[in-house]
Give the backbone structure.
Amino acid sequence: MASEFEIIERYFKKKMKQTLLGIGDDAAIINIQKNHKIAISSDMLVENIHFLKNTNPSHLGWKCLAVNLSDIAAMGAKPKWATLSISLPKINHVWLKKFSSGFFKCANRFGIDLIGGDTAKGPLTISITVLGEVRKNERLLRSGAKIDDDIWVTGQLGIASMGLASLQGKLNLPPHLKTKCIKALETPIPKVLLGSHLSRYSNSCIDISDGLIQDLSHILKASKVSAQLHLMNIPCDNFIHKSKKYQFIFNGGDDYELLFSAPVRNRAHIKKIAKKTNTTVSIIGTITRKKPLKILDHEGNLMVFNPRGFDHFA
Amino acid sequence: MASEFEIIERYFKKKMKQTLLGIGDDAAIINIQKNHKIAISSDMLVENIHFLKNTNPSHLGWKCLAVNLSDIAAMGAKPKWATLSISLPKINHVWLKKFSSGFFKCANRFGIDLIGGDTAKGPLTISITVLGEVRKNERLLRSGAKIDDDIWVTGQLGIASMGLASLQGKLNLPPHLKTKCIKALETPIPKVLLGSHLSRYSNSCIDISDGLIQDLSHILKASKVSAQLHLMNIPCDNFIHKSKKYQFIFNGGDDYELLFSAPVRNRAHIKKIAKKTNTTVSIIGTITRKKPLKILDHEGNLMVFNPRGFDHFA
């Protein structure tokens, strides 16, 4: 792309706040605080696969950074730096202006420096790597869940996937709810502040990107434990209870909420840091010894698991 | 892609040698040595733009990592970790096996751990981020060149772009030279060891990816200096001198040699570390005060610069 340098100058080169050397040399250089390690996460988003063709470019810029921040937060780390590589079919200044403004809106809100990347000609593809700092011995792994831990989630589940289903014409929603769901889908709020404070109180953590069941299963498998969940306690919009469309809670993707387990004795601490970081949190179940994962419905009855997921219920 | 986990397990999850936590959680975690900083470089390669459709997948796997290692080496840093994100039109196990084997051949040769990344369905696109360690105050920038510095390059220039021209049917080469040129194009050797030893003796450095003139110009601009080069001293295949196809030296891309400047008093030191790291090095000119960049031909006459580059000579 002839004007690669110009695109970078114009849209992606901003003042660095926590970076020794940013965009402009063969590589960027950063400094890590004493007694900290580095958490690194990469994601690639392809048009028509991870986002719809006509997605608002500003929302897309926000989201592609936000989903990586969510991964870093789920490690108990504080995200600080990002690289962005992007291939575009042609140089579209209107699109680039909107995309970069959404990207930096998210970057500024969460204190991220964009330190490098690449631009190329090609089908619209966005690849981001985020780096964060984590204190020695405070990383939050999937493998740390202990028997009798409380299972917690942030926010409400299922909202984003309801937004997607609604955009795809597969779900009718009342207008106010549709707006809320599409907002959750397009501009998710990564739980960055809570994540970086959780590690002292929590035993395991993951961010929910593929649906509650699949992501909880990653924790259970890595920790060699099982779990029991209470449907009534899973935070979601009332629409889900009324319509019984529980598949959005269990299998819906794109939530980018944190799912974590913590000893019962830490409840007060966790509620305190949730309040401090302005995050809603809910206890939705308990880590147990015995497989399989159980989910109890409103009346305390076991919900029946279908091999393809929880999308059909008895 | 349904079997993303399987692809990663099968082709990309290897034993880590210098990594606290590799592939398998929300993010990887690495530790940086005391008194070191981190250099980070990202590149994106798109099929039919950065590589030809039928490129040998094993060579492609090698090259996409090698070009990023070259960037890190050009900062005076030692590359240690990489993330790889790749989008593929479909799961092709033969291709993945070859691609990953080439990638790890390069990773193993230069001591790199693959610590994360992503796989997606989409047009063939490869996005890599490499991280390296650099000692405090030993980073090598483009902006450090000083008047009277020697200008050095590693290896031979123009070979890779001759390989590309030959594959495109634009250049006829004798068979043995064609093989050498295509090898340089498809499996370049990044000057990793030399790069990480250069910083004590050298004032500025860049890797040559876009041709000698363009990359030297980056150093000159960043350092606010100029240069004089001697055509006779630029290392290249004899074919170039015989055919006078100097455009391959000056404008040919994909060399991935290091171009650096160093005080005259450091000549012996540089030759010593070049020998120690088994790298050929040549002095091709001098950093000067006065613009423009001058190139002297075999007879000491000034070569005439064409605004589109040095592809036509007087």
